[in-house]
Design goal:
This is Malic enzyme. GO terms for molecular function: malate dehydrogenase (decarboxylating) (NAD+) activity; metal ion binding; NAD binding. It comes from Phaeodactylum tricornutum (strain CCAP 1055/1). Belongs to the malic enzymes family. The chain is of the alpha/beta class. The chain folds into 3 domains: about 75-175 and about 625-635, Hemocyanin, N-terminal domain, CATH 1.20.1370; about 185-340, Rossmann fold; about 345-530, Rossmann fold (3-Layer(aba) Sandwich), CATH 3.40.50. The protein has 27 helices and 17 strands. A 7-stranded mixed sheet has the order 10-9-8-11-12-13-16, sandwiched between helices. It has a 5-stranded parallel sheet with strand order 3-5-4-6-7, with helices on both faces. Strands 1-2-17 form a 3-stranded mixed sheet, with no helix packed on it. Helix 11 (about 240-255) links the parallel strand 4 and strand 5. The relative contact order is 0.11. The structure holds nicotinamide-adenine-dinucleotide, (2S)-2-hydroxybutanedioic acid and magnesium ion. (2S)-2-hydroxybutanedioic acid binds near residues 529 and 530.
Length: about 650
C-alpha cells in the first residue's frame, strides 16, 4: 500500500494532464482534494498483493489511459502501477496480471516477455469486442458459461470488464439459471482450480492451509457445503459454481477487487446417492457429517479464516435449512458473516414487495394490511417472513399484528400450532392457531391473499387454477415465484400474466424475457434475486470494517434498494432497478450499511473525515476492471 508521504510526493510528480481519450476509470490516487470529482474508483493497483510503485516517473513509455468525463477538472491524477513478484512469461499465465495482447511494447520489454506475443497491440475494448463476437455466436448457454469461465481463468480484468459493461446480458450465464447446470456438470467440466476446499481430513490443519491461498488481503469469502444448491438439492462439492458466481458478482456489481474474494466449498460429504456412486464425482464420497462433528469442523474453518484475515466477511450460501439458521446463530455475534439465502433474500424481497405496493398505487405502510402467503418454510421463506415482519414493526405495527399478516406453508401445508413441536424456533413464530396443514389452494380460497411468494423448489406449483382463484378476490395480485433455477420457478412470467389477464405484479428469482400480449401490451418481468443486495451489503460491511452484520443493516439495504427504483421503472412495471445500474445500487446500499454500522458503533475503519463524505469513501474503494501498468518488484533506490 502506498504511504501518505509517497502520496504527497506522487501528487506533485503527477501534476501533468495525462493523455486521455478512452471511457474508463483508471487507477488513481490523487483527486482526493479535487472538489470537482464526485466519485472515483480504485482500480486494481492500490489493492493488490503486488505493491504500488512509489515513483510515478518510472512509467516512461507507458500511456496511462483514463478519461476526462467523470474526472473532469481533476488535473492531478495518476495511474498507479503495481509491483509484482511474478516474472517473465509467468505473468502471461497469471489471470490477475495477464492482459494478453494488450501488453504494450514498453511493458513487454520491461517485464521480459518481448517476442512471446504477436506483434499487434490490442486495447481492452477491442479485446472485449472480439470476445463478445465469439460469445454471441454461441447458442448454448452452458457453452457461454464455459467461455466466460475460461476467460476468467486467463484474464480476470477482461472477464470483469465484460461483466461490468454487459451485466444484464452476462448475469444469466455466470449466475442463475446457467450456474445451476454448471454445478451439475462441475465434475465432468473441471479444468483448473479456483477457490479452496476444506474436508474433515483437514481437521487440525485449516489454520495452516489458509496460508496456501496466494492473496494476503481477502475481504469476502463465499462458502457453501453444497447441501441445497439453488432448487437442485444436494450437489456436494459440485456446488463450487455457486460461490464462484456469487463472488464474480461481488467484483463486477459490488466493486470488490478479484484478488480479495475467495470461493470455498466446505466439503462435509454428500447425501446425494447418484454422486456417492458417480466415478467422476470430485468431492468427499461419503455421507454427510452430522451434528457435533459437522459443527466442530465449521468452527475450525471459521476460526482459521479469521486468523489469517481478521476482518473477512463470510457469506453462507446454499446450506440446507437443517443447518443454515443454526450456523448463522452460532457465528453472527462474533464473526462478520451473514446468510444470503435467509437475510439477503429477505431484504431483496422486502424491496420488491414495497415496489409492488407502490406500483399498485398503495402506500408502502400498507404492508401490515396485506395477506401474505409464503409457500416454502425453509431458509428463504422464513428469512423473507422475518424481514417483512421487521419492516412492519418499523412501520409501527405490534409484533402480534405483524405476525397475523402471514400464512406460511411447507410441503405438509399451513404451519399450524398442532405441529409446532415438529417445527424449528423460527418457523414456530409464524404458526397459525387454526387450519393446521391446510393445502395451498385452500389457504388461497379461505384467506384471499394479496401477496403470494414461492420458495419451495417445486417448479409449476402455482397452477392456473390457483392463480385464477387468487385473482378472483384480488384485482392486482402480487406474485413472486422465487425458486431457482428457471425450471424450479413456481410459475413462469407468461403464465402469471396470462392467468391474471396481465393484472398481476410479478417478479421471479431467475430472469424471464419481456412478454408481449397479442393485444399489444408489453410486460417486463422483474427479477427478485438476492444479487441486488449481497454485493452492496458485503461492500459496505467490508469497507467500514463492521464487526458484525445486523438485522438493521439488512433493513436499510432493503430500504435503499426500494428507493432506488425510478418512476420510469415503475411505469414499466419494474420493481427493481435495471441490472445495468447494479454498481450504483451496490454503492448506495454500501453507503447505507456504513451509515448504519456507524450508528450502531460497529464500524472500525471509518475515519472522522471519511464519515463526512461516505459517498466518496465507498466510491473510492470500488474496484473497476482496467489494465494497470505492471513493474517487477525489486529493490530500487531513488
Ligand atoms: N430469488 C432469490 O433470491 C432466492 C433466494 C434464496 C432462495 N431462493 C430459492 O428458493 C428455493 C428455496 O430455498 P430454501 O433455501 O428456502 O430451500 P429449503 O429447502 O430450505 O426450503 C424449501 C421449503 O419448501 C417447502 N416445500 C416443498 N414442497 C412444497 C410444497 N409443495 N408446498 C409448500 N411448501 C413446499 C419445504 O417443506 C421447505 O420448507 C430454492 O429454489 C432457491 O433457489 C431464491
Ligand atoms: O443463487 C441465486 O440465484 C439466488 C439464491 O441465492 C438461491 O439460492 O437461489
Ligand atoms: Mg443461494
Amino acid at each position: 500500500m502506498i504511504s501518505s508521504a509517497c502520496r504527497g510526493s506522487l501528487k506533485s510528480l503527477c501534476s501533468v494532464q495525462l493523455r486521455s481519450n478512452t471511457r474508463q476509470h483508471a487507477s488513481l490516487i490523487s483527486c482526493n482534494n479535487s472538489p470537482n470529482v464526485k466519485r472515483f474508483s480504485t482500480a486494481f493497483s492500490s489493492q493488490t498483493d503486488g505493491e504500488v510503485l512509489t515513483v510515478g516517473g518510472a512509467l516512461s513509455g507507458e500511456e496511462p489511459i483514463h478519461e476526462t468525463g467523470e474526472w473532469a477538472g481533476c488535473k492531478r491524477s495518476f495511474m498507479i502501477p503495481i509491483r509484482i513478484s511474478v516474472r517473465g512469461t509467468d505473468i502471461l499465465l497469471d489471470p490477475l496480471y495477464n492482459k494478453g495482447t494488450a501488453f504494450k511494447t514498453g511493458e513487454r520489454d520491461r517485464l521480459r516477455f518481448r517476442g512471446m506475443l504477436p506483434h499487434r497491440i490490442m486495447n481492452i475494448h477491442l479485446q472485449k469486442e472480439r470476445f463478445l463476437q465469439a460469445l454471441r455466436a454461441e447458442d448454448s448457454n452452458i457453452r457461454k458459461n464455459v467461455m466466460l469461465e475460461d476467460l476468467h481463468d486467463r484474464n480476470e480484468t477482461l472477464y470483469h470488464r465484460v461483466l461490468v459493461d454487459h451485466i444484464e446480458e452476462m448475469a444469466p450465464y455466470i449466475y442463475t439459471p446457467t450456474v445451476g447446470q454448471a454445478c451439475m456438470e462441475f465434475a465432468t467440466r473441471y479444468r483448473r482450480p479456483r477457490g479452496m476446499y476444506f474436508t474433515e481430513e483437514d481437521r487440525g490443519h485449516m489454520a495452516a492451509m489458509v496460508y496456501n491461498w496466494p492473496h494476503r488481503d481477502v475481504h469476502v469469502i463465499c462458502v457453501t457445503d453444497g447441501s441445497r444448491i439453488l432448487g437442485l438439492g444436494d450437489l456436494g462439492a459440485n456446488g463450487m459454481g455457486i460461490p464462484i458466481g456469487k463472488l464474480a458478482l461481488y467484483c463486477a456489481a459490488g466493486g470488490i477487487a478479484p484478488h480479495r474474494v475467495l470461493p470455498v466449498v466446505f466439503d462435509a460429504g454428500t447425501n446425494n446417492e447418484a454422486l456417492l456412486q458417480d466415478k467422476y464425482y470430485l468431492g468427499v464420497q461419503r455421507k454427510r457429517l452430522k451434528g457435533a462433528a459437522y459443527f466442530r469442523m465449521m468452527d475450525e474453518f471459521m476460526d482459521a479464516v479469521r486468523f489469517r484475515w481478521p476482518n473477512v466477511l463470510v457469506q453462507f450460501e446454499d446450506f440446507s435449512s437443517e443447518v443454515a439458521q443454526t450456523l448463522l446463530d452460532r457465528y453472527r455475534d462474533d464473526h462478520l458473516c451473514f446468510n444470503d439465502d435467509i437475510q439477503g433474500t429477505g431484504a431483496t424481497t422486502l424491496a420488491g414487495v414495497l415496489g409492488a405496493l407502490r406500483a399498485k398505487g398503495e402506500e408502502v405502510t400498507s404492508l401490515g394490511d396485506q395477506r401474505i402467503v409464503i409457500a416454502g418454510a425453509g431458509s428463504a421463506g422464513i428469512g423473507i417472513a422475518q424481514v417483512l415482519m421487521q419492516a412492519m414493526e418499523e412501520q409501527g405495527r405490534t409484533p402480534e399484528e405483524a405476525k397475523n399478516a402471514f400464512y406460511i406453508l411447507d410441503q405438509n401445508g399451513l404451519l399450524g400450532t398442532d405441529r409446532a413441536n415438529d417445527l424449528n424456533a423460527e418457523q414456530r413464530v409464524f404458526v397459525r392457531s387454526a387450519d393446521n396443514n391446510l393445502s395451498l389452494m385452500d389457504v388461497v380460497k379461505k384467506y384471499k391473499p394479496t401477496i403470494l411468494l414461492g420458495v419451495t423448489t417445486v417448479g409449476g406449483l402455482f397452477t392456473g387454477d390457483l392463480i385464477r382463484e387468487m385473482h378472483s378476490s384480488c384485482e392486482r395480485p402480487i406474485i413472486f415465484p422465487l425458486s431457482n433455477p428457471t425450471n424450479k420457478a413456481e410459475c413462469t412470467a407468461e403464465q402469471a400474466y396470462e392467468w391474471t389477464n396481465g393484472q398481476c405484479i410479478f417478479a421471479s428469482g431467475s430472469p424471464f424475457d419481456t412478454i408481449e400480449f397479442e393485444d399489444g401490451r408489453v410486460f417486463y418481468p422483474s427479477q427478485c434475486n438476492n444479487m441486488y443486495v449481497f454485493p452492496g451489503l458485503g461492500l459496505g460491511a467490508s469497507v467500514c470494517g463492521a464487526q458484525k452484520v445486523t438485522d438493521r443493516m439488512l433493513y436499510v439495504a432493503a430500504e435503499t434498494l426500494a428507493n432506488f427504483v425510478s418512476k420510469k421503472d415503475m411505469e414499466e412495471g419494474r420493481l427493481f432497478p435495471q441490472l445495468t445500474r447494479i454498481r450504483e445500487v451496490s454503492h448506495r446500499i454500501a453507503v447505507a450499511v456504513v451509515e448504519e454500522a456507524l450508528r450502531e458503533g460497529l464500524a472500525t475503519k471509518v475515519k472522522p473525515a471519511d464519515a463526512n463524505d461516505l459517498d466518496s469513501f465507498v466510491g473510492r474503494k470500488m474496484y473497476f476492471p482496467e489494465y494497470v501498468p505492471l513493474v517487477e518488484k525489486r529493490e530500487i533506490s531513488i
